[in-house]
């Protein structure tokens, strides 16, 4: 299985997309090995044509590291291992062609092509799914929307079915030789769609290849009386040329889709294969003619299984030989497989050696091999020029020699078994990674660079970009370009980020979401700021083109690069995985934002641990959330804040600014240090955004106006020199005009340098003040949250105590009433006994006298439901007021004792939760204070280094400007002194 080059789009379609097409043909049962000849096809954009620039068509996928350095020679064991897998790949390719031919020779299976293709798609998906699992991790899977890959899946199905039908209705020799036409067909499509051409020598060499295919087509389709001779029917010829057109279209499309979806060939095929299989399932019942499956012999079932096994072996061998073979060896292997299939096909066709079609075979194969040799020779010549060009250190066209060079890999692509993008290999036999950020010296040879052995991360890497960031800590992250996005129809500005040899394009809104995500993940860290959004004043001043303002775009381009480099120097940010996913071209940023850890962060980060906001504990759910304007209680007078004087050094100020040992200090003792730092950072912000900003603006405005005046002055002096008849005086005047022009250029450079290296960083430092205040505010809110938790716990305990006291009083009263009722029952029981023992019934006339226990009995029975007047269920009043009465009874305290007991239970539960929250918030406050204090120390050191660098940049800019002006005007003075006074 081959991997895609990073050079996508039309300018890279010729070599790399055809490589992917060939690899995917092999995965799916279309094994035309002559496609190896296409892998050296050039894609040169004519200067006079409307071809696209290579920098515009740069893919979002990372580049093949082999394009940037030459790997070390493999060990003897590695050579044997690679040779073994090359042999497996060759035998499996030949085996699947002849196996498929044998399967299609069965009339009952010949017309079940869609079912056979669906089977191969399933086998392809199964293998890719297995290889993408973390246990193997040959590449990182990535999902795409089904609707996005449906057109390509249809083309993929035709790319497999039509060639297989050609194989079923033609001889193996014709099938393989006809596939040679893929090279000229793709070249024609590239020319028609993207105005790209092949080298003239390669075009001339392709002519006999096409003629040879025509000869084979004519003689192989002629009828013969010999039943042992296998011929090609007209249906087979039709399917062959239709399959060539479908394969060529699929070849041209595939790289366009890779660029559109920002996905590698393996990831794309993993999404395509199941979609193609399901689409075929809807068509199979209407198209395929099925045999009686019980009558299919066992040998045919074994052949079908072998075909799937051969496809899996081809895919598997591709993984093991990726990046281990040179372009020359892979070309030779491709030609060898083509010749072997043609030779074996001829041997099994029953034709004699004197058959006239053999002439066409030799002409076609010879033509395609000759074309490959011509291209390879020119490629090697250009590759040598490229190495010399790189080694010379030329940084033309914006400092990107590779992109600007006509010999760059974007225009002169070489086909190879491509190196996977993600994940990276950490095996001992892997190609050593490139050390970035270093230009080769003149003493180094063309064969490679003397690079130090990079460090490796224990446990391996999850991505190629992670490997680059870990093994090259000093490698800068660059934003090489900013412009309108082709994918979005030019609606948005995207920024091209280069990390080593990988590139990805991101919008400003994605940078903003990255910073927002890092702020939520690390609330105790000072995450660097990004340039501000457009203000309403910007839209009012330029309502139509505010977003396309080039000055703002250039400013964002510089400051976003600073933001990324500051983030990658922070250990916590670099290790959480969000940053390298943002830089990985194989990762969808939208998926990152909606997956763990970002999707697991609570809505309020105050309900999560400070150092692990994506994994809150159950106790954090019970924490109260203070308002953003909440303040700490002034329970006691805080300790006096540390003071600073101007006579002390920076080191001593830092020692007094931060406590020497914060572990023994309480939060109350730490408050003055944080308050003092916030006060100092506010003073810095006021100084930078107040007087300093105004002076900087006036200075830059003055320099721009001075440069304009110098330009006009130089033009006037030059014009005046033309009208002066005296030669010496005219020369002096012209020299003064040239000096004014040079001063104009130097002043423009000074203005630009001061703006980029001094004014912009000062504004960034002012933005840092707001970031620091937010971090300190987070710690204060955590303290407030702790106070609120403690207060809530105290209130709940007081409430519980009151409820328990009320419950005890109620029980005491109930016990008293219960005892009194029991005594009344005992008295009434004695009277009843006396009545029963009497000879006469008791007198009832005394019932209205003093109440007794006996009197109470009827009262209780009257209250019973039996003797109570019940409202009829059919009553209209009951229907109307029944629900209202029920609702009122639910709200009213109909059973105060039960309500009190429920409240006691809930209060006890709340107290338990608050006690857990109290423990959690106490730990959070300690951790947050320690983390904030540690990051403030880091920030303070970096701030001092930054200010020192800005001052040096300011001084150097002034010195350079003064030197250039002095040299220029000294030359002008020397010329003035030469004026002939006569």
UniProtKB/TrEMBL annotation:
<feature type="transmembrane region" description="Helical">
    <location>
        <begin position="266"/>
        <end position="286"/>
    </location>
</feature>
<feature type="region of interest" description="Disordered">
    <location>
        <begin position="631"/>
        <end position="651"/>
    </location>
</feature>
<feature type="compositionally biased region" description="Basic and acidic residues">
    <location>
        <begin position="49"/>
        <end position="71"/>
    </location>
</feature>
<comment type="similarity">
    <text>Belongs to the sorting nexin family.</text>
</comment>
<dbReference type="InterPro" id="IPR000620">
    <property type="entry name" value="EamA_dom"/>
</dbReference>
<keyword id="KW-0472">Membrane</keyword>
<feature type="region of interest" description="Disordered">
    <location>
        <begin position="409"/>
        <end position="462"/>
    </location>
</feature>
<protein>
    <recommendedName>
        <fullName>PX domain-containing protein</fullName>
    </recommendedName>
</protein>
<dbReference type="Pfam" id="PF09325">
    <property type="entry name" value="Vps5"/>
</dbReference>
<feature type="region of interest" description="Disordered">
    <location>
        <begin position="817"/>
        <end position="874"/>
    </location>
</feature>
<dbReference type="InterPro" id="IPR044106">
    <property type="entry name" value="PX_Snx41/Atg20"/>
</dbReference>
<feature type="transmembrane region" description="Helical">
    <location>
        <begin position="78"/>
        <end position="99"/>
    </location>
</feature>
<feature type="compositionally biased region" description="Polar residues">
    <location>
        <begin position="438"/>
        <end position="453"/>
    </location>
</feature>
<keyword id="KW-0812">Transmembrane</keyword>
<feature type="domain" description="PX">
    <location>
        <begin position="473"/>
        <end position="590"/>
    </location>
</feature>
<dbReference type="GO" id="GO:0015031">
    <property type="term" value="P:protein transport"/>
</dbReference>
<dbReference type="InterPro" id="IPR036871">
    <property type="entry name" value="PX_dom_sf"/>
</dbReference>
<dbReference type="GO" id="GO:0010008">
    <property type="term" value="C:endosome membrane"/>
</dbReference>
<feature type="compositionally biased region" description="Basic and acidic residues">
    <location>
        <begin position="21"/>
        <end position="30"/>
    </location>
</feature>
<feature type="compositionally biased region" description="Polar residues">
    <location>
        <begin position="1"/>
        <end position="20"/>
    </location>
</feature>
<keyword id="KW-0072">Autophagy</keyword>
<keyword id="KW-0813">Transport</keyword>
<feature type="transmembrane region" description="Helical">
    <location>
        <begin position="174"/>
        <end position="194"/>
    </location>
</feature>
<feature type="transmembrane region" description="Helical">
    <location>
        <begin position="231"/>
        <end position="254"/>
    </location>
</feature>
<dbReference type="GO" id="GO:0042147">
    <property type="term" value="P:retrograde transport, endosome to Golgi"/>
</dbReference>
<feature type="region of interest" description="Disordered">
    <location>
        <begin position="1"/>
        <end position="72"/>
    </location>
</feature>
<dbReference type="InterPro" id="IPR027267">
    <property type="entry name" value="AH/BAR_dom_sf"/>
</dbReference>
<keyword id="KW-1133">Transmembrane helix</keyword>
<dbReference type="Pfam" id="PF00892">
    <property type="entry name" value="EamA"/>
</dbReference>
<dbReference type="GO" id="GO:0035091">
    <property type="term" value="F:phosphatidylinositol binding"/>
</dbReference>
<feature type="transmembrane region" description="Helical">
    <location>
        <begin position="298"/>
        <end position="316"/>
    </location>
</feature>
<keyword id="KW-0967">Endosome</keyword>
<keyword id="KW-0446">Lipid-binding</keyword>
<keyword id="KW-0653">Protein transport</keyword>
<feature type="transmembrane region" description="Helical">
    <location>
        <begin position="111"/>
        <end position="132"/>
    </location>
</feature>
<feature type="compositionally biased region" description="Polar residues">
    <location>
        <begin position="409"/>
        <end position="428"/>
    </location>
</feature>
<feature type="transmembrane region" description="Helical">
    <location>
        <begin position="328"/>
        <end position="346"/>
    </location>
</feature>
<dbReference type="GO" id="GO:0005829">
    <property type="term" value="C:cytosol"/>
</dbReference>
<dbReference type="Pfam" id="PF00787">
    <property type="entry name" value="PX"/>
</dbReference>
<dbReference type="InterPro" id="IPR051079">
    <property type="entry name" value="Sorting_Nexin_Autophagy"/>
</dbReference>
<dbReference type="InterPro" id="IPR001683">
    <property type="entry name" value="PX_dom"/>
</dbReference>
<dbReference type="GO" id="GO:0006914">
    <property type="term" value="P:autophagy"/>
</dbReference>
